[in-house]
Amino acid sequence: MSELKRTPLYPLYAEISGVRCIDFGGWDLPVQFSGIHKEHEAVREAAGLFDVSHMGEFMVSGPKAESFIQLVTVNDVTALVPGQAQYSAMCYPDGGVVDDLLVYKLEEQSYMLVVNASNIEKDWEWLQQHLSDGVQMTNQSEETALLALQGPKAEDIIAPLVDADLAKLGAFHFLQHVTLFGASVLISRTGYTGEDGFEIYLPSENAPAVWKGLLEHGVAHGLLPAGLGARDTLRFEAKLPLYGQELSKEISPLEGGIGFFVKLNQADDFIGKEALQQQKNDGIPRKLVGVEMIDRGIPRSHYPVYAGDTQIGEITTGTQSPTLKRNLGLALIESSYAAIGTQVEVDVRGKRLKAEVVSAPFYKRARKGADSK
C-alpha cells in the first residue's frame, strides 16, 4: 500500500484542535477542522481558508503554446490576455471529459494549467501525447502550494496585507509577483465555493508562513480554516462540478452542465469538438439538474433516479444543504425528464422516495468577484 501524499501544510494541521484527515485520492487531507457545517457557514458569512496544495500545476510555454492549448481544451484560449484566466475542460475524441481545469495566461507564449489532484498523472500523460514542436511543458505541482481564501470578507482580510489594489481585480483575473508575508505569490480572483474570494499560488516552502499569517490576521473577521467537507458542500450548492461525479470519461461537458464553456463556434478544432457538435445537433441525451426531496430522505451519489418503473439516471452529488436546510441533489438524468417541476423518485437504500426537479444552482450570492474551479 503506497504512502499517502501530504501538502506542505500537513505539519500545521495538528496545531488546530478537532482536525480530521482522510485519504482523498491518495492524499492525506483535512476533511474538517472545527466541523463541516461551522466551516461552511463561515465561508458563506465571513471567510474560510482552504489548503488545496494537492492541485496540479503545469507550465506551458513556447511559440506554439497557444495553439497547443487551443487543441486540447474546449474553451477559446485566444480570448485571453496576460493576467486573465478561464475555466475549461479537456475532452477525449468521443466527447468524454479527461479533466476540467483552469488556464492562466501568464504572459505571451506562457501559461499555467491547473488540474485536479487525482488526475495529475493522467492529465500529464494525455498532454504529452499531443505535445508538438514549439511547446515546452513542465510539471511544477510539487513545488507549488495553493491556498484558497473564500467568503464575503476575503477581500477585507487580504487587501491590507498586499501592495496591490485587489478591489480592481475582476473575476478570472490575477496578479503576479505580489508580496504576501515575505513570499512572492500569484493572486487570482477565482474559487470553488460560490463566494467571492482569491486563490493564492506560491512556492511550497513559503506556504506555512502565509497560512499562519492569514489565519492570525483573519481572526478578527471571522476567518476559519476549512476542509474538504465544507469545500464539497459549498461547491455543491453553487452547482460547481466535481470531476468523477458531474464530469467524467463517460459524461460530456454538455451533459455535465458546463456547456457555456465549450466554444463550438470557434474556427479552431479541438479534441472532441466533432463529437460534441454531433451531440448538440442530435439533442443532448442527458442533463444535470437539481432535485429536491419531497419525502424524507437525503439523496447521495449514485442513488438511482426513476420515473415510474424506468431508471432515468442517478444522483451525482447530494446532501442536506447547510445553507438552505433542504435535502437536495444534483442528478444526471435523461433530458426528457429535466423540466423544472417534473416528479421523480430517488432510490434511497432500496426505498423509492418522491422528489422534484428544481432550479439549480441552489445558492447564488450577490455578484462581485469570481467563481470557478
UniProtKB/TrEMBL annotation:
Keywords linked to the UniProt accession: Aminotransferase, Methyltransferase, Transferase
Chain positions recorded as substrate binding sites: E199
Domain Aminomethyltransferase C-terminal: 286-364
Any one Gene Ontology BP term: methylation
Protein origin, superkingdom: Bacteria
One GO MF term: methyltransferase activity
One annotated Gene Ontology cellular component of this protein: cytosol
Role according to the record: The glycine cleavage system catalyzes the degradation of glycine.
Name the record gives this protein: Aminomethyltransferase
Native organism taxonomy: Bacteria, Bacillati, Bacillota, Bacilli, Bacillales
